[in-house]
Input
Amino acid sequence: MKKLLAIALTVLVSVFTFSTSAFAADAAAGAQVFAANCNACHIGGNNAVMPPKTLKEADLKTYLAGYKDGSKSLEEAVAYQVINGQGAMPAFGGRLSEEQIANVAAYVADQAEGNKW
Output
């Protein structure tokens, strides 16, 4: 009985460990997505088209829908913006996979929140 319980517990821990990491966004992979799709306008966290709208956290709080009113985390708000676009920014929802969008949102949030831009 103890052996069966130990096996069941091991299986459960494995399932939760691997399923959590499968859904976790990967900021390092997001850096690659950013370099390939976002750098032209947002190199170094800046904005070549609309200079006041940088990717620095203080600026994102002033204009990013959902984040400025606190209804979304920074990562969620960035993902929404990437999917839908707005103004001069095109929508990437049809161009990038859900995983790529989650990864690039994680990267942008990590850079902004860590003052790495």
Summary: The radius of gyration is 18 Å. The chain is about 60% helix and 0% strand. Residues 20 and 70 are 25 Å apart (CA to CA). The chain has a mean pLDDT of 88.
